[in-house]
Design goal:
It is found in: Cytoplasm, Cytoskeleton. The protein is an alpha+beta fold and 517 residues long. The chain has seven helices and 29 strands. Among the domains are: 102 residues, Pleckstrin-homology domain (PH domain)/Phosphotyrosine-binding domain (PTB) (PH-domain like, Roll); 97 residues, PDZ domain (Pdz3 Domain), CATH 2.30.42; 101 residues, Pleckstrin-homology domain (PH domain)/Phosphotyrosine-binding domain (PTB) (PH-domain like). Strand 23 and strand 24 form a beta hairpin.
Length: 517
């Protein structure tokens, strides 16, 4: 199904906005501009049309004009009066810029100079026009065909006044002149919406923010294709229009991503399937209050979490990721949601790990992925439903990896002894001597009652002895403590999910938000 609608294209250089039409299909977003096209007859000059107007005793030239050099825009036809001289030619349109009047070039003329020239040009006036495809929105030109049947009007009256040339000028002839009508052989013209730019939605990304800042554009966003082609800044007349288009484009991008995942998964083994992938914004490390962000493409595939600067298109691209982490050793955490009552909800999934994040970020829909050695990546998505999908996808990818792996073993030490620590989906925790392989202790997941760590390498695990009910403390030292703690968290969460999936769903912060909205 194709969606169409009127929007504005904002030019950041000139600070002007131009009326455009958007056409959205399943695979492409197209930007259209209005233009005047020749539909029949021979047209020697496609860009310029030269039209003869006969001034009428009642109605004059039958048009109004706006603009002028003093406003840094050409003089354009702003009104055409039905059945009067300009309308009868069939060759003039609202939005036509006047290039010449009786052979005199007026491209650099002021509004008053053109008015004076047209009013004193005699009974027969020859004007050369060219349709102004990028008419600044401040001209407030109606977008439809001449007359009341216009399909869209830009709203309030323009600060630039219309000069009506439907009144008589200095006519020397008072007898009724023959009407200005098209000659049979002359070319016929129509105003039409023409495609000017097509943005493929496969792997496209959307941004509502001014580049690199936390400043949200008002009722505006930009769509960027995989090859970097941008729609430019699309502005909408109402917040509702903006939200509708954002949702529609985002849905089509997501659908295309699902198609790409299905294609990729045909070439992958069952244990190496893509669970989810898509664009996010990553907050750059060490940035000051300006909070610089950069687009990143994330993927959850097989046993790994990938971070790319550009999406993987071929199978070879997967080894070119900027970062690759084992899914058992990462921790997904939601930071912020923008609630209906305009307050922040800050969510902490796992309180056992010290988290030291700067939460002054002004963007909603933020999550972080904590990785080994206490490091983390901080991400933001554009829409709340994307956050819910990432939350669910990380959960699913991690649980699948835990069940596939079955167990993870880490080298550790205590008081100079080299030990091995195993987290096993079926058995729980086991610690054994790395040389003799003698098991020193073993506990089920349910026996772990608490833990504490020094934030560096040492951890204390508190287990309850099933017979004595006493708490036994086991101290261990790891090279990468964070990865081990994340792994313990992943295995316990997967174990709970396998026993009680409803409980895991009930803990979803993002989905609670989505349903409440």
């Amino acid at each position: 199904q194709t969606k169409t609608g009127i929007a504005l294209l904002y030019d950041e250089v000139s600070k002007n906005a131009y009326d455009i039409r958007l056409k959205l299909t399943k695979e492409v977003l197209t930007i259209q501009n209005q233009d005047v096209v020749c539909v029949s007859g021979s047209d020697h000059s496609a860009n310029h049309r030269t039209v003869k107007l006969r001034r009428q005793p009642v109605g004059g030239l039958g048009l109004s004009i706006k603009g002028g050099a003093e406003h840094k825009v050409p003089v354009v036809i702003s009104k055409i009066f039905k059945d009067q001289a300009a309308d009868q030619t069939g060759m003039l349109f609202i939005g036509d810029a006047i290039i010449q009047v009786n052979g005199i070039n007026v491209e650099s003329a002021t509004h008053e100079e053109v008015v004076h020239l047209l009013r004193n040009a005699g009974d027969e006036v020859t004007i050369t026009v060219q349709y102004l495809r990028e008419a600044p929105s401040f001209l407030k030109l109606p977008l439809g065909s001449p007359g009341p049947s216009s399909d869209h009007s830009s709203g309030a009256s323009s600060p630039l006044f219309d000069s009506g040339l439907h009144l008589n000028g200095n006519s020397t002839n008072t007898a009724p002149s023959s009407p200005s009508s098209p000659i049979a052989n002359e070319p016929k013209y129509e105003k039409r919406w023409l495609d000017t730019l097509s943005v493929p939605l496969s792997m496209a990304r959307i941004s509502r923010y001014k580049a690199g800042t936390d400043k949200l554009r008002s009722n505006a966003f930009e769509v960027l294709a995989l090859d970097g082609v941008s729609t430019g800044i699309l502005q909408f007349y109402t917040a509702q229009d903006s939200a509708d288009w954002l949702r529609a484009i985002s849905t089509n991008v997501s659908d295309m991503t699902l198609q790409n995942m299905k294609m990729a998964n045909k070439c992958c083994s069952p244990s190496d399937q893509v669970i989810h992938m898509g664009w996010v914004n990553e907050r750059l490390e060490g940035t000051d209050s300006s909070q610089l962000y950069k687009f990143k493409f994330l993927a959850l595939k097989g046993s790994s979490f990938y971070i790319f600067s550009t999406p993987p298109v071929s199978t070879l691209d997967w080894v070119r990721a900027e970062k690759i982490y084992n899914l058992c050793e990462v921790l997904f955490k939601i930071h912020k949601l923008w609630l209906a009552d305009d307050c922040w909800l800050q969510a902490n999934f796992y309180l056992g790990i010290h988290q030291d994040f700067d939460l002054e970020d002004q963007r909603p829909y933020c999550f972080s992925v904590m990785v080994g050695h206490g490091k983390s990546h901080y991400f933001n998505v554009e829409l709340g439903n994307e956050l819910a999908v990432w939350e669910k996808s990380f959960q699913r990818a991690i649980f699948l990896e835990v069940q596939r792996t079955g167990s993870k073993t880490y080298m550790c030490s205590w008081q100079g002894d080299a030990l091995c620590f195993t987290v096993d989906f079926a058995l729980g925790f086991t610690c054994f001597d790395s040389k003799t392989k003698n098991v020193l202790w073993r506990f089920k997941f349910s026996q772990l009652k608490g833990s504490s760590d020094d934030g560096k390498t040492k951890v204390k695990l508190l287990f309850q002895n099933l017979e004595t009910k006493q708490i036994e403390t086991k101290e261990l030292e790891f090279q990468d403590l964070t990865a081990v703690l994340h792994c313990i968290h992943s295995f316990i969460a997967a174990k709970v999910a396998s026993v009680d999936p409803v409980f895991i769903d009930s803990q979803s912060i993002a989905r609670k938000y989505m349903y409440s909205n």
